[in-house]
Amino acid sequence: MLDRLSHRRLEKAALSVAAQVDGKLLPGETLIAAISRDPKSRLALTSKRLRALSDLIADFRIFTRVWGMLGIWKWGSGLWKEPPQDKALKWIAWMQVGVNVVYQYLENGAYLAQHGIIGFDERKQTRWWVWSSRFWMAHVALDFGRLWMEKRAGQAAQEGEEKEGKIQRVRREEKWWREAYVNAAYAPLTLHWSLENGAVGEMWIGFLGSIAGIIELREMWRSTS
């Protein structure tokens, strides 16, 4: 986005020069202006630094997920011991465990190959990144189904349990909306990363990623306070 702003600024400067010399050139004369982008300009430098920061954050988040199989194992173990009473929610949960196992396996392989730990060529790395994102997208889609089922179950429970504490209901609704917003932000991103040529621009990637990141960071901060 900053690159485009820098380009527009240069274009505006060129048009200004053209307007100033308009009518002052003799017949047959041509003005050639070569305007090069200054690599040290503020916009170009800021854009470069933001991209570097974005890449660093993404790399760190993926690195922390390298150990995600342990969390998935814990999730599956808890699901086996205490499955949801609703049959549909139980099947959704097991499907989520399954797609997350495949997603984590593919992402770990692509990430380790990117850093030279596994000997994948660039084409295979890209294929693994794309397919890992597709399984992540499947998880997001299943999570929308889970949220819809939980919303229906919550409405039914609220009608049948009028004595339920108001604070508990509010907390449950806040958690539901928080997860819905995160999934809504991740949905277009997972679609984008599932396509080799992408689907959205850098501005939307940063915007949607920031929404999900801020919501998750706030919840993490709240849980530790």
Automatic annotation (TrEMBL):
PANTHER family: MICROBODY (PEROXISOME) PROLIFERATION PROTEIN PEROXIN 11C (EUROFUNG) (PTHR12652:SF25), PEROXISOMAL BIOGENESIS FACTOR 11 (PTHR12652). It comes from Trichoglossum hirsutum. Keywords: Membrane, Peroxisome, Peroxisome biogenesis. This is Peroxisomal biogenesis factor 11. It is found in: Peroxisome membrane. GO terms for cellular component: peroxisomal membrane. GO terms for biological process: peroxisome fission. It comes from the Eukaryota.
